[in-house]
């Protein structure tokens, strides 16, 4: 049976979204041992990354404007945000589409994109509390961290980085409407995202021409902006402008995700169509 072209509901049902976020938040606490060992793994690879970055400095006090203390803080931040931002992959929507569960979700009285965003917000918040805060605390104890001079700007940038990343991840997952196995597309996208958002290496360490190229994409806003605002690389109006760019890319990617979703739903087939 082929489904009729579904409509995308856009009404704001705030209590429902809050409920979805809360349930998603609580779900992350269901497996404490998995969280513990994930934290141990995160800290182990974080220690390796610290060693590699410090080796790059050698006897030099600075590199591309970063001090050794900046490099340690950068590593701690990226490891802390790794799970919250799902930088190693997010395939939940793909699985929902491939299993046909998307048809049931479309019958519910809420915005499909909005509800998925609410659920991801709950997941990200829980992961940041469980792993992110723990990683930052451990880094502060073991290596020492530099704390931000403008916590409010960091908080805004952090929220926008998650939202921008979610919009990109949702858009990539919509490939499942066209491909019976979109996981490969996802892996390619996460690889580009990890390199271009500043997770694998500070973007300041890349050649100037590559930095200019990345500045034309949304990827730096998915993590690098948070790091630069935290470290004080961007301050005052420069920081505000960087956050404004994050907001603009977030709106653009959410619009693109909604458009792609609408196109995908037009070709949706369930139960063998």
Automatic annotation (TrEMBL):
**Chain ranges passing through the membrane:** 36-59, 71-91, 124-145, 152-172, 184-206, 239-257
Q: Pfam families recorded for this chain? A: ABC2_membrane_6
Keyword tRNA processing assigned to the entry: answer is no
Swiss-Prot/TrEMBL keywords = Membrane, Transmembrane, Transmembrane helix
Q: Which domain of life is it from?
A: Bacteria
PANTHER family cross-referenced by the UniProt entry: INTEGRAL MEMBRANE PROTEIN, SLR1174 PROTEIN-RELATED
Record protein name field: ABC-2 type transport system permease protein
Which organism was this protein described from? Longimicrobium terrae
């Amino acid at each position: 049976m082929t489904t009729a072209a579904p409509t995308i509901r856009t009404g704001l049902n705030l209590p429902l979204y809050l409920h979805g976020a809360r349930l998603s938040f609580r779900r992350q606490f269901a497996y404490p041992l998995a969280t513990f060992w994930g934290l141990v793994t995160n800290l182990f690879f974080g220690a390796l990354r610290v060693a590699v970055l410090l080796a790059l400095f050698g006897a030099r006090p600075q590199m591309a404007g970063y001090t050794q203390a900046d490099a340690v803080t950068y590593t701690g931040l990226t490891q802390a945000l790794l799970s919250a931002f799902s930088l190693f992959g997010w395939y939940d929507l793909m699985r929902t589409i491939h299993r046909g569960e998307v048809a049931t979700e479309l019958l519910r009285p809420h915005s499909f994109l909005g509800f998925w965003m609410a659920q991801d917000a709950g997941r990200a918040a829980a992961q940041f509390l469980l792993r992110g805060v723990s990683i930052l605390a451990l880094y502060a104890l073991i290596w020492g961290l530099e704390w931000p001079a403008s916590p409010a700007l960091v908080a805004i940038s952090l929220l926008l980085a998650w939202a921008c990343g979610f919009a990109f991840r949702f858009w990539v997952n919509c490939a499942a409407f066209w491909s019976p196995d979109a996981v490969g597309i996802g892996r390619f996208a996460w690889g580009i995202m990890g390199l271009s958002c500043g997770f694998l290496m500070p973007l300041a360490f890349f050649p100037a021409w590559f930095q200019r190229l990345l500045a034309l994409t949304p990827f730096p806003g998915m993590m690098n902006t948070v790091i630069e605002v935290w470290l004080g690389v961007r301050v005052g109006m420069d920081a505000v402008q960087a956050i404004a760019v994050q907001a603009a890319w977030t709106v653009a990617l959410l619009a693109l995700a909604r458009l792609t979703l609408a196109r995908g739903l037009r070709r949706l087939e369930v139960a063998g169509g």
